[in-house]
Amino acid sequence: MDTPLWWHDDAAGGVRVAFTCVRAGNLGTHVGDPARALENRRSLEEHLGLEVGSVHYLQQIHSSRVLDASSAQLPGPEQPAPEADAWISPRGVQPLAVMGADCPPILLAGATSSGVVTGAAHTGRPGLLGGVLENTVSAMRSRARELSEPGAITAWIGPGACGQCYEIPEEMVDQIAAERPAIRSRTRWGTAALDLKAEAAQVLSEAGIEVVDTAGCTMEDESLFSHRRSSQQGAAPGRIAGIIWTP
């Protein structure tokens, strides 16, 4: 059977990181058939060797809010997923997921003398500009002073719309790039664009985080879900996920 994973790797401290592709199916319960999305999540957990229902998903709202997964309840039939756009797991115990479909999912991990601290962030434009990455790194470092050392945390930037595809109005780019110059880009056809992945890499690098860019443009690669491609070209809607866990 074809793997549901687009990219995966083993990291320090026994951590595993992965990003899914369309073969995993749509993982967003707010897109298409919610029941089918839950089935896809269960199938993915089985493929990863995780307990069914153990992966923590968020109700993502394009915010800069970060939650501690060790104190969050897993959603049930009458319990919705918590609203936020990033997680941390202070001991790396909880498998964390964030979804995307043009907004890059970013996974983070830092090994300490007492274990590993993991994180996952959804970096849509509002959340990225609002400081979701800075807040995630701060939350991780608040759990272990060792993680404040340069290079102590590694971040994996997952697939997202690239800076040559993410077109937005020129005046909006000018306004945003005035304070965040790394985000300015141009499309292949010469119009104004944002590069969310470049901005995320800049924020992380300035914070002393080791960055791994896994590449992948959701608008160009049909093995990935894209909200913009779905809206503009009628492609199947859906959400990929970035997942970080310790086996």
Short description:
This protein has helices at residues 34-48, 125-130, 132-143, 170-177, 196-206, 227-233, and strands spanning 5-10, 16-20, 66-68, 86-89, 96-100, 105-112, 115-122, 153-157, 184-186, 192-194, 210-213, 240-245.
Would you kindly provide a written description of the structure presented here, covering whatever features stand out?
β1 and β2 form a beta hairpin. The protein has 247 residues and is of the alpha+beta class. The mean pLDDT is 94. The strands form 3 sheets. A 6-stranded mixed beta sheet has the order 3-4-7-6-8-11, covered by helices on one side. A 4-stranded antiparallel beta sheet has the order 1-2-12-5, with no helix packed on it. The chain has a two-stranded antiparallel sheet with strand order 9-10. The two termini are 22 Å apart.
List the uncertain runs. none
Shape: globular
Q: Sheet with the most strands?
A: 6 strands, mixed
Class by SSE composition: alpha+beta
Order of helices and strands: EEHEEEEEHHEHEEHEHE
Distance between the termini: 22 Å
Binned, the helix content reads 10-25%
DSSP strand (E) fraction? 15-25%
| Number of β-strand runs | 12
Structure annotation, total helices: 6
Radius of gyration: 17 Å
- The pLDDT mean sits at 94
Helix and strand topology:
Layout: E1 5-10, E2 16-20, H1 34-48, E3 66-68, E4 86-89, E5 96-100, E6 105-112, E7 115-122, H2 125-130, H3 132-143, E8 153-157, H4 170-177, E9 184-186, E10 192-194, H5 196-206, E11 210-213, H6 227-233, E12 240-245
Parallel strand pairs: 3-4, 8-11
Antiparallel strand pairs: 1-2, 2-12, 4-7, 5-12, 6-7, 6-8, 9-10
